[in-house]
Amino acid sequence: MKKTFKGCLLSMIFFMGTFAPALADSRTPLTDRHRFGLGLKTHYFDYKEPGVMEETGFMYGVVGHYTHHTAYNVMVHASVESSMGRLDYDGQLQDGTPFKTDTEDWLVECRGLIGYDIGIKGRYLITPYTGVGYRYWNDVISSAYGYEREIHYWYAPIGVKTAGPLAEKWTWGLTAEYDLFCRGTVKSHLSDADPAYSDPSLGQDFGEGYGVRCSLMFERALAGGASWSIEPFISYWDMERSEVGDLYSDGASIGHVVEPENETLSYGLSISLNR
Question: Are 227 and 274 in contact (CB under 8 A)?
Fold first, then answer.
């Protein structure tokens, strides 16, 4: 399923990025403006380490973004998203005993994008883009056996945005994106569970994972140049096993640790007020 999802998304990005220039004409009324947006989001979060554990539940947060379309058809975009939630943990202890509890989670994502606007028949807009993204996930297992984890991803978004008229005062657009994983770390604060333990930090290198995302945006114009928008979205991360690290107890090496391969599926909705 995940290979099909990835393949369809990459085909969509390639098609829009390849054939849009052949249809291009003058700039559309959808460019030539600055736009700020602030809103709320909710999403269902499903993190899974196959055969080991799973964390699921709803998260809630805020989104902020700025977009500028220049007179030279260049699009610049910056965004920050933050969400929090209490998830259900279903896993096992080191001896294999089934174990269920709650987790407290905080997710932050910052992105900077640059793209090129291609006008289609004076009404539609296609914008291939790339950029840089950073994702931070703080995950705390709430129990006597629990501990805090900090997960950092650096990645390069590669995607396509579209925009066009839908009805009076309404526009709509589609975003399809592939996220090229560049570098990451997973730090496990095992000393939370046993003060004698060390807190290993495990690295993940370029290409040892990927992400995909897709969203559909509907926007309605309001008085005074403002608008509000609603955007359902879905995102998916697939990560390989991390490098192997050493585990210490009271300064003495007692073995090795590794972050298992894992996948994260998230889908939800954001609502923003723009101006």
Answer: yes
Return mean pLDDT, the chain. 89
2-32 pLDDT, tens digit each:
555 555 555 544 544 444 444 444 444 455 4
Q: Centre a 10 Å sphere on the Cβ of residue 88 and count the other Cβ atoms it contains.
A: 12
User: Could you confirm whether domain 2-274 is CATH 2.60.290.11?
Assistant: no
User: Per-residue DSSP letters for the chain?
Assistant: -HHHHHHHHHHHHHHHHHHHHHHEESPPTT-S-EEEEEEEEEEEEEEEETTTEEEEEEEEEEEEEEEEE-TTSEEEEEEEEEEEEEEEEEEE-TTS-EEEEEEEEEEEEEEEEEEE-EEETTTEEEEEEEEEEEEEEEEEEESTT--EEEEEEEEEEEEEEEEEEEETTEEEEEEEEEEEEEEEEEEEEGGGT-TTB---EEEE-TTSEEEEEEEEEEEEE-GGG-EEEEEEEEEEEEE-----EEEEETTEEEEEE-PPPEEEEEEEEEEEEE-
**Which tens digit of pLDDT belongs to each residue from 39-68?**
999 999 999 999 899 999 999 999 999 999
Q: What pLDDT does residue 123 have?
A: 85
- HSE-up of residue 61 (Cα within 13 Å, Cβ side): 20
pTM here? 0.88
Residue 56 corresponds to which amino acid? T
Backbone angles phi, psi at 19, to 5 degrees: -95, -15
DSSP state letters, 51-119: TTEEEEEEEEEEEEEEEEE-TTSEEEEEEEEEEEEEEEEEEE-TTS-EEEEEEEEEEEEEEEEEEE-EE
